[in-house]
Design goal:
286 residues; three-stranded antiparallel β-sheet; Alpha-Beta Plaits; 2 domains; 8 strands; 36% helix; single chain; alpha+beta
Length: 286
């Protein structure tokens, strides 16, 4: 995608993605001295997508564990080749909002978490947009749900509903941090795709479920966030410790105790070189 950057902003984003997670930094917070990495937090970045997916999976799993009747729902529509991707997203999200306002839905579903997924067949040019939701629902009539969803969209639409399984929280977290993963794009298509997703909402909550910004446990009292104290890059701490700096040596010792697998000595160190052969001066040779 870097070669097809068309504007200064594209080049700036591409440079941030390229430099994402390229260095380890030493920080200090309430847990002590720890390591962190620089993140660009861009939707197009695969490193940040994986990190977001892991975090989202934990939040979703904690939320769904409180559900009495966890249910997994997938809503699909017929792909529209005549509509831009942004318009397709707006259409399906609007339809989902209309579905949730129906009295039958409100009586059957108490709340849940939804996320948008975008896929594309590798040999086709149009996108397929659909919604996944984990919700707390004792029973929703499938026939009514399919008929209502098709009526709202005005075209054949798909509905799949079942009892949620443990792995579904991981799936939903993966969709939340998906980014470009799983979407068959040519390099010159990535920037137009990214532009379509600017300021587009791709996930959310509904019903009695609090917003995702509340974290894993919305009932827990929220404390004020204190950003960690940035100390220095790890390479600089190691260099100062080698020079005998006392503070750097203490910090490095704490890091070794916390991450012993990162500072493990080489199990097969190279053999010592053979001792140099001493050749006496010519005037001493008998």
């Amino acid at each position: 995608m870097w070669w097809y950057a068309q504007t200064p902003r594209h080049h700036w984003v591409a440079e941030r993605i390229e430099r994402c997670s390229d260095a380890l930094w030493v920080v200090r917070d309430e847990s002590g001295v720890r390591l962190t990495s620089n993140h660009c937090n861009n939707r197009q970045c695969p490193e940040c997508a994986n990190r977001r997916a892991r975090q989202a999976s934990k939040v979703v799993a904690a939320r769904v564990a409180r559900y009495k009747w966890p249910t997994f729902l997938t809503l699909t529509t017929t792909p529209r080749r005549d509509l831009p991707l942004r318009e397709q997203i707006r259409t399906i999200v609007t339809a989902f909002n209309r579905l949730r306002r129906h009295a039958v839905w409100q009586q059957s579903v108490s709340g849940g978490i939804w996320v948008l997924e975008i896929t594309r067949h590798p040999h086709r040019t149009h996108y397929h947009v659909h919604i996944h939701a984990l919700m707390d629902s004792k029973f929703v009539d499938w026939e009514w749900l399919r008929e209502r969803w098709t009526t709202i969209n005005g075209q054949p639409s798909g509905v799949h509903i079942r009892r949620a399984q443990e792995r579904d929280s991981k799936y939903l977290g993966k969709y939340m941090g998906k980014g470009f993963a799983g979407i068959s794009l040519e390099p010159w298509e990535e920037w137009p795709f990214a532009e379509e997703l600017i300021s587009v909402r791709t996930r959310g909550t509904f019903g009695t479920e609090p917003g995702l910004c509340h974290g894993a446990d919305p009932d827990e009292e929220q404390t004020e966030y204190m950003p960690p104290e940035v100390i220095a890059p790890l390479s600089e701490v190691i260099a100062r410790a080698r020079d005998g700096n006392v503070a750097a040596t203490e910090i490095l010792a704490q890091l070794i105790a916390r991450y012993p697998w990162m500072f493990r000595p080489d199990p097969d160190p190279p053999p010592d070189p053979p001792p140099a052969k001493l050749i006496p001066p010519a005037d001493l040779v008998v």
